[in-house]
């Protein structure tokens, strides 16, 4: 069985949803189709939740009405037959009745999670209505019936495997299943989610749970590119990556793939394909256990980085000093991306944190603390790049015009990372594209 995940832009317009249906029915292979919310919907739902949290109910009502109008228009083009339109209208009625009811309820975080779940629930139900009109037999599997996370927000793969297996067994003989990405239940049984970009994660977790033959991630770009095509003019899709290379690229900023989505596939050795709904004939990128060769494969950039420098000539060499620093970040569940040390200071980076003030307060007893906001991590990724001297030379020769704040080298054989001021991001990506790939 294959897993096919389609992102928001792939289902964001009626004609795109029609195209997805053709891709889903192009062969007779059994498959689970994982859908994101229609493009723009999750952002709208976030804004509705924000308005309600601030007590701006009239503003929230306006946002709900605007989103509802969009869906009313959407279903007119999605389905044509009266019976199908009646079913699609009933779906929209039900979900927007819920959104209007919450205007009368006291807002809390659990309710906000309910709000955020509406996008995927809408997209999958409307897609199911369209498939029915098109004469395609499909079963809707509610993700809330099998997808769960524990108290640490980690997915419960053994439970997912059992619950999903039971649902598939009940529908034995069916070839097409539809389910929601992103949404799940938490340890309390409440509706929750896998965070932004979590539909990729859902697809990978489902693939791991059922030991799928492959996981396909369908987006609006033909695979993972060697550089950011939004910034650099000449880029090209990479035909093959290893799990390690793909994980580094996803974590350090490649937008096509959610960072967490690699490990379930890697753990169970399930190939992942990155494909383009707009160009289904394109090869895209396949991610497998083995790399296709040595050398630089791609460059990724991660924005919104904060650099923190803790300077202490008195304590740095003391036993346990670094452990105490790390314990502060562990306490506030804040991951560290890069770290360097000198005789008198530790410099590290984080991708923002809601607990920044608390972090700084607890770090101050260790020495003076300096912050640099608006930094960018640029990562050069490929098999054995950190063990290839010629690559390092090309890298620094390319960047003699860019001031480097930090360098991470040797932590991974597949990655060399540099920290720069955010204002140098575009220039850096362009210089590296020329220096490492010969493309301007």
TrEMBL record:
<feature type="domain" description="Aspartokinase ACT">
    <location>
        <begin position="378"/>
        <end position="434"/>
    </location>
</feature>
<protein>
    <recommendedName>
        <fullName>Aspartokinase</fullName>
        <ecNumber>2.7.2.4</ecNumber>
    </recommendedName>
</protein>
<dbReference type="GO" id="GO:0005829">
    <property type="term" value="C:cytosol"/>
</dbReference>
<keyword id="KW-0067">ATP-binding</keyword>
<feature type="binding site">
    <location>
        <begin position="219"/>
        <end position="220"/>
    </location>
    <ligand>
        <name>ATP</name>
    </ligand>
</feature>
<dbReference type="Pfam" id="PF00696">
    <property type="entry name" value="AA_kinase"/>
</dbReference>
<dbReference type="GO" id="GO:0009089">
    <property type="term" value="P:lysine biosynthetic process via diaminopimelate"/>
</dbReference>
<dbReference type="GO" id="GO:0009090">
    <property type="term" value="P:homoserine biosynthetic process"/>
</dbReference>
<keyword id="KW-0418">Kinase</keyword>
<feature type="binding site">
    <location>
        <position position="230"/>
    </location>
    <ligand>
        <name>ATP</name>
    </ligand>
</feature>
<keyword id="KW-0808">Transferase</keyword>
<dbReference type="InterPro" id="IPR036393">
    <property type="entry name" value="AceGlu_kinase-like_sf"/>
</dbReference>
<feature type="binding site">
    <location>
        <position position="42"/>
    </location>
    <ligand>
        <name>substrate</name>
    </ligand>
</feature>
<dbReference type="GO" id="GO:0009088">
    <property type="term" value="P:threonine biosynthetic process"/>
</dbReference>
<dbReference type="InterPro" id="IPR045865">
    <property type="entry name" value="ACT-like_dom_sf"/>
</dbReference>
<feature type="binding site">
    <location>
        <begin position="5"/>
        <end position="8"/>
    </location>
    <ligand>
        <name>ATP</name>
    </ligand>
</feature>
<dbReference type="InterPro" id="IPR042199">
    <property type="entry name" value="AsparK_Bifunc_asparK/hSer_DH"/>
</dbReference>
<dbReference type="GO" id="GO:0004072">
    <property type="term" value="F:aspartate kinase activity"/>
</dbReference>
<keyword id="KW-0547">Nucleotide-binding</keyword>
<dbReference type="InterPro" id="IPR005260">
    <property type="entry name" value="Asp_kin_monofn"/>
</dbReference>
<feature type="binding site">
    <location>
        <position position="120"/>
    </location>
    <ligand>
        <name>substrate</name>
    </ligand>
</feature>
<dbReference type="Pfam" id="PF22468">
    <property type="entry name" value="ACT_9"/>
</dbReference>
<feature type="domain" description="Aspartate/glutamate/uridylate kinase">
    <location>
        <begin position="2"/>
        <end position="276"/>
    </location>
</feature>
<dbReference type="InterPro" id="IPR018042">
    <property type="entry name" value="Aspartate_kinase_CS"/>
</dbReference>
<comment type="pathway">
    <text>Amino-acid biosynthesis; L-methionine biosynthesis via de novo pathway; L-homoserine from L-aspartate: step 1/3.</text>
</comment>
<dbReference type="InterPro" id="IPR054352">
    <property type="entry name" value="ACT_Aspartokinase"/>
</dbReference>
<dbReference type="InterPro" id="IPR001341">
    <property type="entry name" value="Asp_kinase"/>
</dbReference>
<keyword id="KW-0028">Amino-acid biosynthesis</keyword>
<comment type="similarity">
    <text>Belongs to the aspartokinase family.</text>
</comment>
<comment type="pathway">
    <text>Amino-acid biosynthesis; L-threonine biosynthesis; L-threonine from L-aspartate: step 1/5.</text>
</comment>
<dbReference type="GO" id="GO:0005524">
    <property type="term" value="F:ATP binding"/>
</dbReference>
<dbReference type="InterPro" id="IPR001048">
    <property type="entry name" value="Asp/Glu/Uridylate_kinase"/>
</dbReference>
């Amino acid at each position: 069985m294959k897993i096919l995940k389609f992102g928001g832009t792939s289902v964001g317009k009626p004609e795109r949803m029609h195209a997805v249906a053709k891709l889903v029915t192009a062969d007779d292979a059994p498959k689970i189709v994982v859908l994101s919310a229609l493009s723009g919907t999750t952002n709208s739902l976030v804004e509705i939740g924000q308005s309600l949290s601030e007590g701006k109910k009239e503003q929230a009502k306006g946002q709900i009405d605007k989103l509802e109008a969009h869906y009313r228009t959407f279903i007119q083009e999605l389905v044509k037959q009266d019976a199908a339109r009646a079913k699609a209208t009933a779906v929209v009625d039900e979900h927007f009745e819920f959104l209007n009811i919450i205007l009368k309820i006291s807002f809390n975080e659990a309710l906000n999670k309910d709000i955020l779940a509406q996008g995927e629930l809408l997209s999958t139900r409307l897609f199911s209505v369209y498939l029915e009109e098109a004469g395609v037999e499909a079963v809707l599997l509610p993700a809330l019936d099998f997808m769960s996370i524990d108290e640490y927000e980690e997915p419960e793969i053994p439970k997912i495997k059992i619950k999903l297996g039971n649902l598939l067994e009940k529908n034995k003989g069916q070839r097409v299943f539809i389910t929601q990405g992103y949404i799940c239940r938490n340890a309390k049984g409440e509706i929750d989610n896998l965070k932004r970009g979590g539909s990729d994660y859902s697809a990978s977790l489902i693939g791991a749970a059922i030991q799928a033959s492959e996981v396909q991630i369908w987006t609006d770009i033909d695979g993972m590119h060697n550089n950011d095509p939004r910034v650099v003019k000449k880029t090209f899709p990479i035909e093959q990556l290893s799990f390690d290379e793909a994980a580094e690229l996803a974590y350090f900023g490649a937008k096509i793939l959610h960072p967490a989505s690699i490990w379930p596939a890697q753990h169970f050795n399930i190939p992942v394909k990155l494909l383009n709904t707009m160009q289904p004939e394109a090869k895209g990128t396949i991610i497998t256990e083995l790399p296709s060769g040595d050398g630089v494969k791609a460059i990724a950039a991660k924005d919104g980085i904060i650099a923190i420098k803790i300077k202490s000539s008195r304590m740095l060499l003391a036993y346990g000093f670094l452990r105490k620093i790390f314990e502060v970040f562990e306490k506030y569940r804040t991951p560290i991306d890069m770290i360097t040390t000198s005789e008198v200071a530790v410099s590290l980076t984080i991708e923002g944190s809601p607990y920044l003030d608390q972090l700084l307060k607890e770090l101050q007893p260790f020495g003076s603390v300096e912050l640099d906001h608006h930094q960018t991590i640029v990562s050069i990724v490929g098999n054995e790049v950190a063990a290839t001297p010629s690559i390092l030379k090309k890298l620094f020769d390319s960047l003699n015009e860019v001031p480097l704040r930090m360098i991470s080298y040797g932590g991974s054989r597949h990655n060399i990372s540099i920290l720069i001021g955010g204002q140098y991001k575009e220039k850096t990506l362009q210089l590296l594209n020329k220096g490492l790939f010969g493309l301007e």
